[in-house]
C-alpha cells in the first residue's frame, strides 16, 4: 500500500484530486500506480489526479537518455522510463509532482500543456521568493546564480511527461532540499555547461510542506478548466 497523508491545506481546485505521500515511494510502485490512475481516467472511472511524493535515491532515464551520461551506474538504482527527457535524479528532499490530467478535457495540445506546467512552477517558486524562468531550447525551470558568476544559471526543476490516450502522467521534480551531490553520478538532463540547485542551496529555508502549499495555491491559475475554451482544442 502506498503511504499517504491527508492534506491540511485548502485545496483551491475542486476539479482535481490531490494526493500527498508521507514517505518515499519506490519508483516501480509509483509508475504502476500512475499507469493505473491514467488508465482509469481515460475510461472515465477516476478523477484527474495530482500526486505529490518523494522517491528513494534513484536515477531515471528518459526516452532521450544517452548512455555516456550515466557516469556512476553503480551508485543508485537506474530505471528506464517512458517520460520525455534524459537522465535525472530523484531522492529525499525533492518534491516529485505526478500529473494525471485529461487533455481531451483540457485541449489536446501537448506543447500548451508543457507551457502551463512551466508557468505554474515559476508562479509557485515566486511564492517561495525565487525568480524562476525558462531557457530557449532547454526544458525545466532555471534560476540565475549571480553569486556564482554573471552568466551562471542552475536548474531547479525538471519536467518530463508522457501522454497515453490523451491522459498525462509523470511530471515535475522540484528541488527543495535534496542532497545535490547525488547528481554527480549523471549528466543531469544532458547539460554540461550549467548546474543544478535547490531552495536550500539558495539559502531559502523552505520545507516540502511549504513547497506543497505554493504548488497547490498556484495550480488553479494555470490549470482551471474554465480557462480552456474551444479555441484551444487541436483535435
Distance between the termini: 38 Å
- SSE string: EHEEEEEHHEEEEEH
Task: Provide the β-strand percentage band.
Answer: 25-35%
Radius of gyration: 17 Å
Helix content: 10-25%
Spans of at least 5 consecutive residues with low confidence: 228-235
Q: What characteristic shape results from the CA principal axes?
A: globular
Structural class: alpha/beta
Helical region count? 4
Largest sheet: 8 strands, mixed
Mean pLDDT: 88
Number of domains: 1
CATH architecture: 2-Layer Sandwich
CATH class (first level) name: Alpha Beta
Number of strands: 11
Task: Enter the CATH topology name.
Answer: BirA Bifunctional Protein, domain 2
CATH-defined superfamily: Bira Bifunctional Protein, Domain 2
How do the strands and helices of this protein lay out in sequence?
Layout (H helix, E strand, L loop, with lengths): L16 E4 L6 H16 L6 E5 L4 E4 L16 E3 L6 E4 L3 E7 L2 H4 L3 H18 L5 E3 L2 E7 L8 E12 L2 E9 L19 E2 L11 H16 L12
Parallel strand pairs: 1-2, 3-4, 9-11
Antiparallel strand pairs: 2-6, 3-5, 6-10, 7-8, 8-9, 9-10
Helix pairs in contact: 3-4
Provide a compact summary of the structure.
By secondary structure, this protein is an alpha/beta fold. Helix content is 23%, strand content 26%. The protein has a single domain, classed as Bira Bifunctional Protein, Domain 2 (BirA Bifunctional Protein, domain 2, 2-Layer Sandwich), CATH 3.30.930.
